[in-house]
Amino acid sequence: MTDLDDAVDVLGVARFVAGFAQATIRTLDDSLSGVGGRTVMWIECDHDDEPARLDAATSQQLEAGIKVALDQRLPVVISISTSGTDIEEGMIALDGWGRVARRLTACSGIVPTLMIVDGPAVSGPALLLGIVDFAILTERSSAFVNGPVMVEQFTGIGIDVEELGGAAAHARYTGVATMVVADRAAAEAAAHDLLAYLPDNVDQEPPRWPSTDPADRSCPGAGAQIPESSTGSYDVRKVAAEIVDEDSILELRDRWAANVVTAFATVDGRPVGIVANQPMVLAGTLDIPASQKAARFVAFCDAFNLSIITLVDTPGFYPGKDLEWRGMIRHGAQLVFAYARASVPRICVILRKSYGGAYIVMDSKTMGNDLCLAWPFSEIAVMGAGQAAAILARRSSPEEKAVFEADYAERLLNPYVAAERGFIDAVIDPADTRAHIAHALDVLADKREDLVQRKHGNSPF
Q1: 157 and 149 in contact (C-beta within 8 Å)?
Q2: Are 140 and 165 in contact (CB under 8 A)?
Q3: With the CA atoms of 338, 339, 345 and 350 taken in that order, what torsion angle do they form, in degrees rounded to the nearest 10?
Q4: Which residues contact residue 261 at a Cβ distance below 8 angstroms, ignoring those fewer than 6 apart?
Q5: pTM of the prediction?
Q6: Angstrom distance (rounded) from CA 329 to CA 325
Q7: CATH fold for domain 220-378+414-446
Q8: So what CATH class is 2-195?
Q9: Phi and psi (nearest 5°) for 75?
Q10: pLDDT digits (tens, 9 = 90+) for 368-418
Q11: Domains 2-195 and 220-378+414-446 are alike in CATH topology
Q12: What angle do CA 310, 312, 317 make, to 5 degrees?
């Protein structure tokens, strides 16, 4: 462990006051992956187990530590417990946390950033949780911009800390929490586990894990998860577990927007990002939270050179006036935007249903994926047979509608129509899925794209 003051001397950066923060360059022991030690910038922001006041000196320490990490291209881990900006210091303290926010933003897409919250994160500093790549909350933590007193003053409604911004609320309703763990020790272990899948910075590849799981291993259990009924539910995480390396899956934000699964895993030792529709929740349809969750994960994987594997089983976007009025178009476009600009290797596997706009959005060949595979019983069409009958045969008798549906399903609800037109690269036996993906990742290992030089795209936030 190297004290930051020493590191700053070596780097020729001016010394600074410590405040309530302590920053160290730390070597982690990644026992999960066996990859070896990782060097990170680790910043503690608390004071004798009490929430720290984010005063100017503390903010200066945070800012300086983050700057060193950015200059040296090291991941940043911040452990914070803060009662908010120091009221007595006033504008100086506000300026300080604003500088921290700006410095963290400069890290975005260059070095991974993680934040551990083991206590409160109040007011402006809570917004830092929305800037970092991953927020790990302990069960006793809480985070909010306006606390219970302010909420009651403005709304007249009393609410306690746990309900307003407890860890459970952020895991289930807001999506702020990447993970919720029992305590500080578990949070540090979770940070280690996350970093095991990631490179130190944008200029590096993710560390390859040692693996004894054969790349060409047959995975008949993947297809066996799919029920005979096209409307039956199943846990897509079990499908993913059959395809990737044994015991390598780490799911993120598992309680928020559970109709889509986002996870890290490895295939033949290569870290990858997995995006999958979850038929167990809302039939795997896409709504606003699911689109946001998947879009940010895709963007992160693209920034840090993780290949993306998309497992598709969705009947489309979730319908409803409320969803449309809340901006389904804008938020659905976030997922379109994220996939369309991603330049890392992208492999799509259509497991069962892939209808309409959701077919396009879930990394279709049209969106520019590198390999699109489909299982033989998958259904790829504008819509399902029942929906098509409701529109195209709406004036027909029930018997005529049944005939229409049967004919529609036989002619169009299969992957071969898409394959004939080049929208599917191959229709494969589900048992061969792992082997196809592992081979594709080998072929695509040197993939590079020359992107148009610009400041950035205008993402539909």
Answers
A1: no
A2: no
A3: 140
A4: 236, 237, 240, 251, 254, 274, 275, 276, 277, 278
A5: 0.91
A6: 9
A7: 2-enoyl-CoA Hydratase; Chain A, domain 1 (3.90.226)
A8: alpha beta
A9: -60, 150
A10: 999 999 999 998 887 777 777 677 777 777 776 777 777 777 777 889 988
A11: yes
A12: 115
